[in-house]
Amino acid sequence: xxxxxxxxxxxxxxxxxxxxxxxxxxxxxxxxxxxxxxxxxxxxxxxxxxxxxxxxxxxxxxxxxxxxxxxxxxxxxxxxxxxxxxxxxxxxxxxxxxxxxxxxxxxxxxxxxxxxxxxxxxxxxxxxxxxxxxxxxxxxxxxxxxxxxxxxxxxxxxxxxxxxxxxxxxxxxxxxxxxxxxxxxxxxxxxxxxxxxxxxxxxxxxxxxxxxxxxxxxxxxxxxxxxxxxxxxxxxxxxxxxxxxxxxxxxxxxxxxxxxxxxxxxxxxxxxxxxxxxxxxxxxxxxxxxxxxxxxxxxxxxxxxxxxxxxxxxxxxxxxxxxxxxxxxxxxxxxxxxxxxxxxxxxxxxxxxxxxxxxxxxxxxxxxxxxxxxxxxxxxxxxxxx
Length: 386
Ligand SMILES: *Cc1c(COP(=O)(O)O)cnc(C)c1O
Description:
- There is one protein chain.
- By secondary structure, the protein is α/β, with parallel strands linked by helices.
- Helices cover about 35% and strands about 15% of the residues.
- It has helices at about 10-15, 55-70, 80-90, 105-115, 130-140, 160-170, 185, 225-235, 240-255, 255-275, 295-300, 315-325, 345-350, 370-385; strands at about 75-80, 100, 125, 145-150, 175-180, 195-200, 215-220, 280-285, 305-310, 330, 340-345, 360-365.
- β4, α6 and β5 form a beta-alpha-beta unit.
- The longest helix is centred in the last third of the chain and has 20 residues, at about 255-275.
- It is globular and about 80 Å long.
- Bound molecules: pyridoxal-5'-phosphate.
- Pyridoxal-5'-phosphate binds near residues 81, 82 and 154.
């Protein structure tokens, strides 16, 4: 089907690449739960399926949709979580290798890079990834093997110039991997911009229904490093389960529609909240005053994504009080689901966080944007005693 008449990504996603059940021709393929597969009489495995830890058809179906969305020639690999996907990239490096990572990034991965990667002989330096001179200065040609970037980066939605950082990485003999969870393939295609690997927490907007924990990597080139990542997934047993893969494929069918609606809602909220008397600052790359706006305009398409943050007047106390007063927004961590989520990030990130104490992170769902604004407006006023 992908080789058909150049159907658009939205069409290909809607039909999950046209996979049907070969026996019944059911338009929804069955969930493959087998842990092992018959060997051929000549001792070969002509189907390419040997054992459940590396091989599962339901997982491959979801992978084929994501590979299509990312234009990933080498394909995609699903993992049991975003963290399993991200750490697999680092675990595919050699002891002694050096990694450059962003100071502002997904907090749990930053902690792992800072506290655990060293036990595998990997050294990591953290830089402001939107400061190209700082990135250049942090790279040691020959020793740096990976630049890890995240854009827009959680929770300030800093924009990293993927093409520029890819050039720095490649000039030094390193690879660039991009955590594109907040952009999603609807808004940014890092591989087309020069990245070697793109990573998503599929827990977020790819699945979109807050009922699967999963992660994915996709690559442009099927090289030795990609083969090592595949081995890490297999030997560490980090593949996504078939039930989760089935749910993920179901979510992916509507992903382009959800992403469009959620980005439109986020833009609307960002604009209206910018004029709110109890909001000191709105962080959203779609706003002209956002420091990464110009790069975002060049590098993102179809809008600027579903994530924004607001800095509330009155500091941490007013921010926490605002989150306490919402009724439609759900007070919870995570992002990308159809339900809108609000979170006081500094509370969850703890000591050493670059997250300002007055910041509320907003994940825009698919509810009516007017309702979402009205709920926040009422909560902001109540938290400020009016
Ligand atoms: C959630 C998230 C992760 C981690 O993904 P899990 O599926 O929770 O393991 C990594 N990066 C970003 C940007 C995320 O939002």
